Amino acid sequence: LVVVIDIDDLYQTKCAAAVTKAAKETMGAIDFVLYYLEGQHNLENHEDCKRYLNKASTYLAGSQIDDLDREHYINLLSQKTKFSKTLIQRLVKWVLSKADSKMEKVLTSNRIKSQRQSKNLNRFEQADHQIIQLLLTDGWNIVKFDSLGISLYSKMCRDLASLIVQKYYESKGDKKVELADLYSAMPQEMITLVNQIMSESYPPSSLDELAKVVVDDLASKRHEKSLEQQILEVDDLKKQTELAEELINKRRLKSRRINKED
Q: Is the overall model pTM greater than 0.85, yes or no?
């Protein structure tokens, strides 16, 4: 029996408060899921206890933990269910062997989906998403982002970045902002955006490089649009020519810079 437990699904249903509470009390993800599953089953009933063990073993097999931690949780499951440690070890090993090929297919599918999602974004949206990834993984990036006064391309990403900065300073300088704290202050559409951003894969880039895209390059693009509009609106032929030359020169410089970078 292979059971997939979706923490996002738990959060969005009746366990929203429990997820937030668990995160704030520094309960680990595995401890929380085992605790949640235990509450859904009657361990005094043999069949229900077997269902609990199957689900818990499946989750444990799929968790990224070392052998010592896995041994700890196997002992814990043995104590709770009264099933032998040897039996649970065999069950976890069986789940791992069955799940490997299926997991590889899922991971491959997710990578392809992530690549398609990021390809559908323009370069400014991609820079927005990469910056959000950096903000969610390192508090130093948040401090630097705030000090530079960077304004992101999309309104939703601007609002999300502001919330991350706010939560970081409220946490009094923790190493990073916890997703559970963010989720509790977000509308559903922003939660969906965060989940999408964290599933996307990009080549490594620094905050300075990405800031240049959303600040300098975006300003340049907007200036080009402004020149195009002025050319259409002005009646004076000489002025039109001057604006057109400025626009052409600007695009030539940008083309040279891009070719040089390549």
A: no
Contact 66, 45 (CB under 8 A): no
Q: End of a domain among 119, 152, 169?
A: 119
| One domain, residues 212 and 202 | no
Are 195 and 98 within one domain? no
| Model confidence pLDDT, tens digit, residues 76-109 | 999 989 999 999 888 888 877 765 555 555 545 5
Counted domains in the chain: 3
Q: Which residues contact 76 (CB under 8 A, 6 or more apart)?
A: 34
Residues 89, 13 within the same domain: yes
Residue 259: per-residue pLDDT: 47
Instruction: Domain of residue 48: give its range.
Output: 7-119
| C-beta atoms surrounding 262 within 10 Å | 5
Q: What is the DSSP string of the chain?
A: ------HHHHHHTTTHHHHHHHHHTT--HHHHHHHHHHHTS-TTSHHHHHHHHHHHHHHHHHS---HHHHHHHHHHHHHHH---HHHHHHHHHHHHHHHHHHHHHHHHHHHHHHHHHHHTS-HHHHHHHHHHHHHHH-HHHHHHHHHHT---SSHHHHHHHHHHHHHHHHTTS-SS--HHHHHTTS-HHHHHHHHHHHH-------HHHHHHIIIIIHHHHHHHHHHHHHHHH---HHHHHHHHHHHHHHHHHHHHHHHHH-
Domain limit, last residue, from 185, 207, 229: 207
